């Protein structure tokens, strides 16, 4: 990783653009391909109705999302080149674990709050309605976002990196988990045990949890945990259709 960071530090702008685009295309393909595989393997554990056929609009929005995510990656790399974003390459393991925990909870709270703001009636039609046009999520839906929303989340991530010098290991582990949760949230099938999805102690934002938000815009704003929804009183019980589907024997 030290070698990769040295290359990034010395790279020309066109190289940063090419690498960022390639990286984000690979992450997009991995997310959608693994997501579709999970949908097929877990077909008996549906937590919402199957989505309709993919439209040209969804493909155009997801392609735009990948390009904008690459743009955010380029801006991050430029800030790193100038020393505004600090990525540590030598560190004890505890520091990487600490970074992971800090990024996990800080981003979980910040994205919860941003999501609540995105649902404000004066902002919702301009920024977030596009994503909610799709009531029954599928793996591609993670990337079907209004461009303003993509830039909002990307900007939030860059602000956190500007404020917090991070180890490459903690950052990479967090980013992998972020993509995994985003993918799982839009599967439309539930990979987690039933208790995690519906039990009183369940606090992980499961697939059912985010499918519940697509069906009911007033609840379930969290991304990784139910912590903030429970704290601010916005956690919903699983919608009944969801519960009925999941209570079927395997
Ligand atoms: Zn969603
Ligand atoms: Zn929403």
Oligomeric assembly: single chain
**Poorly predicted runs:** none
Bound ions, cofactors and other small molecules, one mention each: zinc ion
**Annotation field: number of helices:** 12
Sheet-strand content, in percent, reads under 5%
CA-based shape: globular
What topology does this entry show?
Elements: H1 2-10, H2 13-41, H3 56-81, E1 87-88, H4 93-118, H5 124-127, H6 129-132, H7 147-163, E2 166-167, H8 168-185, H9 194-198, H10 207-215, H11 227-231, H12 240-246
The structure holds zinc ion (2 copies).
Structural description of this entry:
The protein is mainly alpha-helical and 250 residues long. It has one domain. The chain has twelve helices and two strands. It has helices at residues 2-10, 13-41, 56-81, 93-118, 124-127, 129-132, 147-163, 168-185, 194-198, 207-215, 227-231, 240-246; strands at 87-88, 166-167. The chain has a two-stranded parallel ribbon. The longest helix is centred in the N-terminal third of the chain and has 29 residues, at 13-41. It starts with a helix and ends with a helix. Bound molecules: zinc ion (2 copies). One zinc ion binds at residues 131, 137, 141, 186, 210, 214. The site of one zinc ion has 6 residues, from loops.
